[in-house]
Design goal:
Layout lengths: L6 H10 L2 H31 L3 H37 L3 H28 L1 H7 L7 H13 L1 H16 L3 H25 L4 H25 L15 H32 L4 H37 L3 H28 L1 H8 L4 H16 L1 H16 L3 H14 L1 H12 L1 H45 L1
Helix pairs in contact: 2-3, 2-8, 2-9, 2-11, 3-4, 3-6, 3-7, 3-10, 3-11, 4-6, 4-7, 5-6, 6-9, 7-8, 7-9, 8-9, 10-16, 10-17, 11-12, 11-14, 11-15, 12-14, 12-15, 12-18, 13-14, 14-18, 15-16, 15-18, 16-18, 17-18
Length: 464
C-alpha cells in the first residue's frame, strides 16, 4: 500500500509537477467539496419547496445567515490556508502550525458568539433579513437549528481549507462529501418521515455538518505529514490575525457581501410577494451550485499558486493562472448554454405547482447565463490576487460581484424596471465586476512577467 507523502515530497510535487497535471489532480477533490457544500442548501431548497412557496422562500431568507457562517469560516480557513501554503513554500513548519491553530480555534469561538447572538434576537433577525408575515414562522423554525450548528460549520470550513492548502485535497473532500450525502438522505426522512417540516431540513443539515466536522478533525489530527491542530499553538496576537485576515479578507468580501446581497435581494423582492422571493432563492441556489464548481477549481489552483509564489517560481504562477482561466471559460460557457436551454425545466423541478415562481425564475436564470463566461475571469482573478498575498486588490475584486456592483443594482434597478430590474441585477453586476478585475489583474500579471524576465536575465549572467 502506498504510504502518505512526507512534507518534502509534497513540496517537490507542488513546485515541479507540470501544472496541467497538478492542478486537475488538486482541483477535482476541491470541486467535489464545493459542490457538496452547495448541495447542503440545494437539498434543503428542493425538499422544503415541496411543502409550499412560503417555506421555500424561508430557506432563501436564511441563506444570508448560512452565507455569513461560510464567510467567517472561509475568511479564517482560506486566509490561514493561503498563509500556510506560502509558509510551507518557505519551509517554516512552526509558523504554519501556529497559523492553523489560530484559524481553527478562532472559528469555533466566532461560531459560538454568532449562535448566542442570533438565537437571542431570532424574530427581529428574520424580519430584518426580509421575511414577510407568512414567511416568518418558517424562517424562525429553520434558523434556530442553523445557528446552533454555527460553531461546527465554521470549524469544518476552516479544516477543509487547511487540508486543501497543504495539498490534501482528497481528504478534505472526504469529510465534506460524506456530510453532503448524509444531508440528502436525512432531509426527506426528517421533513416527511418524522413530520418535522422545515425544522427537519435544518436538523438534517446540522447533523450532517457534525459528521463532516468529526471526519475532518480526525484527518487534521492523524494524517501523516499534516499540520496538527494543537491548542498550545493558538496564537491570538494582532500580528497573527493581521496575516490571516490580510489573506482571508477577500473571502470575507466575497462570502460576507453575498450575505448582504442576499438580504438586499430579499428586501428588493419583498414588494413582488412570496413567489418572487422563492423564485430568486431557487435561482441563487442553482447558480451558486454552478459557481461553486468554479470556485472549487480555483481552490485547486490556489495552493499551487501560493507554493510557487513562496518558492519564487513566478513562471509557474503565470502558467497556472492562464491554464485555469482557459479551462474555466470553456466550462462556464458550456454550463451556461445548457442552463439557458433548460431554465424552465430547472425551475419546474423545484416548484412544479407554482407557475409564477417558474416564470420569474426562468427569465432570471437565462439572464445570468448570458454573463457566465465573465465569471471565469472574475473568479480566477480573485484567486490569483488572494493566493499571492495581494489582499487589498483581491478584496476589491471579490467585493465587486456580490457587493460594490450588485447591491446598488438591487437597490435601483427594481425601482426603474420593476421585477425585470430584479432579474437583471446580477448580470449587470457581472459586467461591471469583470471590468474592475481587468483593471486590477492586468497590472499584477505585468509585475509577475517582469519578475520572470529578471530571473531569466540573472540566470544568464550567472551562467556567463
Amino acid at each position: 500500500m502506498k504510504t502518505a507523502m512526507t512534507r518534502e515530497e509534497r513540496y517537490t510535487m507542488m513546485i515541479e509537477t507540470p501544472v496541467s497535471k497538478l492542478i486537475p489532480k488538486l482541483a477535482v477533490p476541491t470541486i467535489i467539496s464545493m459542490l457538496v457544500t452547495s448541495i447542503y442548501n440545494m437539498a434543503d431548497t428542493f425538499f422544503v419547496s415541496q411543502i409550499n412557496t412560503s417555506a421555500s422562500a424561508a430557506v432563501g431568507i436564511i441563506f444570508s445567515v448560512m452565507a455569513m457562517i461560510q464567510a467567517i469560516g472561509f475568511t479564517l480557513g482560506m486566509g490561514g490556508g493561503n498563509c500556510i501554503s506560502r509558509t510551507l513554500g518557505n519551509r517554516d513548519d512552526e509558523k504554519a502550525e501556529r497559523i492553523a491553530a489560530t484559524s481553527f480555534f478562532t472559528a469555533l469561538a466566532a461560531g459560538i458568539l454568532m449562535a448566542v447572538g442570533g438565537l437571542s434576537f431570532l424574530e427581529p433577525l428574520v424580519r430584518f433579513l426580509g421575511a414577510t408575515e407568512t414567511i416568518v414562522p418558517y424562517a424562525e423554525d429553520y434558523a434556530k437549528y442553523i445557528l446552533l450548528g454555527a460553531p461546527v460549520m465554521m470549524g469544518s470550513f476552516v479544516m477543509n481549507n487547511l487540508l486543501r492548502s497543504q495539498g490534501y485535497a482528497f481528504y478534505a473532500m472526504l469529510g465534506i462529501t460524506t456530510g453532503g450525502i448524509l444531508n440528502m438522505i436525512l432531509d426527506p426522512i426528517f421533513i416527511f418521515g418524522f413530520h418535522l417540516g422545515i425544522s427537519g431540513a435544518a436538523i438534517a443539515t446540522v447533523l450532517s455538518q457534525c459528521i463532516s466536522f468529526m471526519i475532518l478533525f480526525v484527518q487534521c489530527s492523524m494524517r501523516k505529514g499534516c499540520i496538527r491542530l494543537k491548542i498550545t499553538k493558538f496564537t491570538p496576537s494582532a500580528a497573527m490575525y493581521g496575516q490571516i485576515l490580510h489573506a482571508g479578507i477577500p473571502s470575507l468580501c466575497r462570502q460576507g457581501l453575498a450575505s448582504l446581497a442576499a438580504i438586499a435581494l430579499n428586501v428588493a423582492a419583498n414588494p413582488f410577494g412570496d413567489a418572487a422571493i422563492a423564485a430568486m432563492s431557487i435561482v441563487n441556489r442553482y447558480m451558486m451550485f454552478i459557481n461553486s464548481a468554479m470556485i472549487g477549481f480555483g481552490q485547486g489552483f490556489q495552493p499551487v499558486c501560493g507554493f510557487n509564489f513562496g518558492a519564487k517560481r513566478y513562471d509557474r504562477v503565470l502558467e497556472s493562472f492562464w491554464f485555469c482561466l482557459k479551462v474555466a471559460i470553456v466550462l462556464l460557457t458550456s454550463l451556461g448554454a445548457v442552463s439557458f436551454l433548460g431554465a424552465r425545466g430547472i425551475m419546474t423541478v423545484f416548484r412544479r405547482e407554482d407557475l409564477e415562481v417558474i416564470d420569474i425564475g426562468t427569465f432570471a436564470i437565462r439572464c445570468q447565463c448570458l454573463t457566465m463566461p465573465l465569471q471565469a475571469w472574475i473568479i480566477m482573478s480573485n484567486m490569483l490576487t488572494q493566493s499571492i498575498g495581494y489582499g487589498f486588490r483581491a478584496s476589491i475584486v471579490a467585493a465587486g460581484r456580490q457587493g460594490i456592483c450588485l447591491i446598488p443594482a438591487l437597490l435601483t434597478l427594481p425601482g426603474i424596471f420593476g421585477i425585470r430590474g430584479l432579474q437583471i441585477s446580477q448580470p449587470v453586476s457581472d459586467v461591471c465586476t469583470s471590468l474592475i478585475a481587468a483593471v486590477i489583474v492586468i497590472g499584477i500579471l505585468k509585475e509577475l512577467k517582469e519578475k520572470v524576465e529578471e530571473q531569466k536575465n540573472l540566470s544568464k549572467k550567472t551562467m556567463d
